[in-house]
Amino acid sequence: MNTMKWLLRREYWEHRGMYLWAPVAVALSVLVLIAGASYRMVSEKIGHAQINGVEFTASVNGLPPGMKTKMAQALSAGYMGTAAPLMFMLALIVFFYCLGALYDERRDRSILFWKSLPVSDGETVLSKVASALVVLPLVYIGISFALSFATLFILAGVGAAKGVNVFPLLLTSPSFYLAPLQVIAMLPVYIVWALPTIGWLMLVSSWARSKVFLWAVGVPIMVTIVLKFLNRFYGLDMDVDWFVDNVILRSLSSTVPGIWFAFEKVDPFLLMDSETHIVSLSHVAYESYAVLARPSAWVGALVGASMIYGAIRLRRWRDEG
């Protein structure tokens, strides 16, 4: 019997709303808003301005030469951007899932049942880690693909109804087909970068008796306050800002997709296409893997893996409610 497969199924059965219904509800809400706004935005007059008392109006049927091509390029290169709300939601879901992953089973005493089964603590904890790092991101990425494709075809469809048919240009654009692959390609980067937060939350979830959120978030904040106080009033020569950026914030925010650009201070212009001046997923993927060439990514991953190992050891004996 494939134990890990059934453990992953268990996580899905116990958190079906988090896995499926919550992202679907958010995606449908975003799609409804975009559908309503796109019809209002793309009307008979898409451009209207008044300069020196003279009104200028541009009809979609009178687009300047080359504008249709630029529109198609912008749509094909940036349509995955509509999934941003889902990616932000993924960060929150993974955070709170890991926070309660090991604590909830002690709180409701279900840990006694699961420990009666021939399943090791390591397999149980690793199934939860795999759910947070692989399964949940894949589910949200799949739903984000559906949302992005639907949004793209709504915008292109409204444009075609108003006289600007960009479908042929979209369907022959390499970016249209490469964008989903480039998003999936960044999943290994997310897995490596998110390990410190996953490890810290799992460790807290394995030993906290109550108020898990306060332990996970409150302790780092209090440590920061104490260090700043000691540094200021006792003249200790500590680089508190470095500690906050590389330890505190890294342990709390690494589940946010793309947050590695902020930590590694990657120039935003490196993420943009030089011609369209919009974010290019090919550039984003390239710079993401460049981050993995830096020691900070792997040091954080090693620390996160160590904390996950600590969570496995703690689960063996801390089974009280």
Describe this structure in words.
- Keywords: Membrane, Transmembrane, Transmembrane helix.
- The protein has 321 residues and is mainly α.
- The protein has one domain.
- It has a two-stranded antiparallel ribbon with strand order 1-2.
What distinguishing features does this structure have?
321 residues; mainly alpha; two-stranded antiparallel sheet; 15 helices; 71% helix; membrane; transmembrane
Quick synopsis:
By secondary structure, this protein is mainly α. The chain contains 15 helices and two strands.
Task: Give the mean pLDDT.
Answer: 84
Oligomer: single chain
Q: Any low-confidence stretches, pLDDT <50, length ≥5?
A: 44-61
Biggest pleated sheet: 2 strands, antiparallel
What's the number of helices? 15
Task: Tell me the strand percentage band.
Answer: under 5%
SSE order, one letter for each helix or strand: HHEEHHHHHHHHHHHHH
What is the end-to-end distance? 30 Å
Number of strands: 2
**In the residues, how many domains can be counted?**
1
Helix percentage range: over 70%
General form: globular
Largest beta sheet: strand ordering = 1-2
Radius of gyration based on Cα positions: 24 Å
Structural class: mainly alpha
List the helices and strands and how they pair.
Blueprint: H1 3-14, H2 16-41, E1 45-51, E2 54-59, H3 67-78, H4 84-101, H5 103-107, H6 111-115, H7 121-161, H8 167-171, H9 174-185, H10 187-207, H11 212-233, H12 240-253, H13 260-263, H14 281-291, H15 295-315
Antiparallel strand pairs: 1-2
